[in-house]
Specification:
Shape: globular
Distance between the termini: 32 Å
Order of helices and strands: HEHEHEEEHEEHEEHEEEE
Number of helices: 6
Strand content: 25-35%
CATH class of the largest domain: Alpha Beta
CATH topology of the largest domain: Rossmann fold
Number of domains: 2
Number of strands: 13
Strand order of the largest sheet: 2-1-3-6-12-13
Oligomer: single chain
Amino acid sequence: MAHDQEKQLAGEASLRYVEDGQVVGLGTGSTAVFAIRGLGDRVRAGLKIRGIPTSVRSRDLATELGIPLTTFDDVQQIDVTIDGADEFDPQLNLIKGGGGALLREKIVASASKKLVIVTDASKQVATLGKFPLPVEVIKFAQALVAREIAALVAKVELRKDAAGQAYVTDEGNHILDCSFGQIVDPPALARRLSDMPGVVEHGLFVGMASVVMMARGAQVIEIKRK
């Protein structure tokens, strides 16, 4: 319950970055839900925005709340995206993808002028790697990619759904959860994974976050990228 309260505080605090008339990226995950619900309240109060969701779940929630949506067919750039993270380090490098939406999340983040990350204090780490790194792969290459990543001294597990079957992303791919231990050079690992044929995307978001809104107890700490 304490974590939920912190997530709600962070999600609500992030709304200070949203202004009338903006295109807003709608993140995925338990903390982003609070931000989306807060945006829904503001839209009902008269805020004029258009949202681009990062997952089917976020799309459905936004639709339920009456948030107008748009697509990249109609807009080329997003003013601000509010999303969560599984970990962040002192340089505001992130691990994302615990909710399975890393591909769309990275596309939306890359098109955003500002990426605002909302978290509780448990997500702050000195070095990335405590949380397994999600890697989205096409099914055809899954076994090949798993062996190649394992050769980098990582423990690789295929993500399963609640029924014990392979988890399928919104784009129809699978996810390998890869435990590397401490990731001392996130940019280098990001490049290595991106160069592997069959890898669709990975959960390392390097140099993308503008600010982290981290809730600790009743306080929200704003950490900006240097």
